[in-house]
């Protein structure tokens, strides 16, 4: 539902379980700056709703949520979304609202406000959801109105609830699950001792081509369904799809758990070896560039082109060089960089091509100890599968951008990959692979330094700065290959260690 289609509505709440479920639905659609105004007489259900919503955001059903009747406000620092719970019943005059910190609460979190009528006209008119509770027989009824954008998000959340009901997960508990940097949202779903993961991915309004020349990204759940089926067909542990609503962009997926391939923040050698074995298997034979869909259609894999690689490395000039030097890259510096990378990337034209999962590294790889062989590795976030140089994902894993892979382990993993490929095909060209690996690992480190600099400097995400030393060290490893001699000279001339 778009904001223009959002309309007030009435919702019956026949029992407390329905009120709690509705509170969860609201909790999943809240954003910083939102006000939820709860009105209704004594015993109408306002406090029950507020407690359920706060516990849902906290993912703690036993969280103590006292009524703020006498303190006027109770705050909860809940990570994803801080909540301030106001009870204005004892507010003597609307002017007193200025003294209880509503504006401060809305800068980074949301506010639940009981007895909002006591505030007069001093509550925000935008980013607001109004819920009026009333007693209806043994249950309650809620009249819902508010800002079109908030109502539209609530309508989406209620559509997810209806999808879960149809899928056999009626009454399920919904909780926010940390997602990725895309437009996709994820929830962990629990019901009757079962768990699942909900993917919420409305069809993109933007075109699939992010750059009109070369860079493609999947637009909707059909891409995920196609790639998931292909990976599972090879015996790999991609999540089973329990239910799908492709029109609304909703998937209910097998929960592969939260145990990754790191231990105490460090790469676990056994798990990384399994991950590289998976790649060796994927690359050992020809793979289709069109994947079947359940409806009989086909999902074509976009090509990861030389133009795409060239555009990606320019992010180093656009963002990392200014981050490091405090000034834009000079035209001559930029021209030399571009010519060097044009020649380097051209060397990939003769290298083996296959499936490229793109983000094959620790955040997207899970460990399934109860399974055997390659199925021990759970794989997620693969919907952007492309056709490109096979060595790309090997570089992504062996130079993990989020966890430091020591040089000895990187060497072991690369050797393992070459051994597995040679076992499957004695004609495997290990020398060509080594060159492709060096080029692609350098390209990735160069690109990601630019991406992380942009996120730190322009998206107010300084946490990405901690990864930069690791990426610089990876880049130094890759520059040792002769194919990168010219870039190594450029890099050390313009960005010496003293910088």
How would you characterize the overall build of this protein?
Residues 1-5 have low confidence and may be disordered. A hairpin with a 2-residue loop joins strand 13 and strand 14 (266-267). It contains 13 helices and 20 strands. It is globular, with a radius of gyration of 26 Å. The protein starts with 8 loop residues before the first strand and ends in a 5-residue tail after the last helix. It has two domains: 3-166, P-loop containing nucleotide triphosphate hydrolases (Rossmann fold); 258-494, Aminoglycoside phosphotransferase (APH), C-terminal lobe (Aminoglycoside 3'-phosphotransferase, Chain: A, domain 2, Alpha-Beta Complex). The strands form six sheets. It has a seven-stranded mixed sheet with strand order 1-7-6-2-5-4-3, sandwiched between helices. Strands 8-9-10-12-11 form a five-stranded antiparallel sheet, with helices on both faces. The chain has 499 residues and is α+β, with helices and mostly antiparallel strands. The protein has helices spanning 16-27, 46-58, 102-108, 148-166, 221-233, 269-283, 306-325, 331-346, 391-398, 407-424, 430-458, 468-478, 485-494, and strands at 9-13, 35-39, 73-76, 83-87, 110-114, 128-136, 139-146, 173-177, 185-191, 194-200, 241-245, 250-254, 262-263, 266-267, 290-292, 298-300, 353-356, 365-367, 377-379, 386-389.
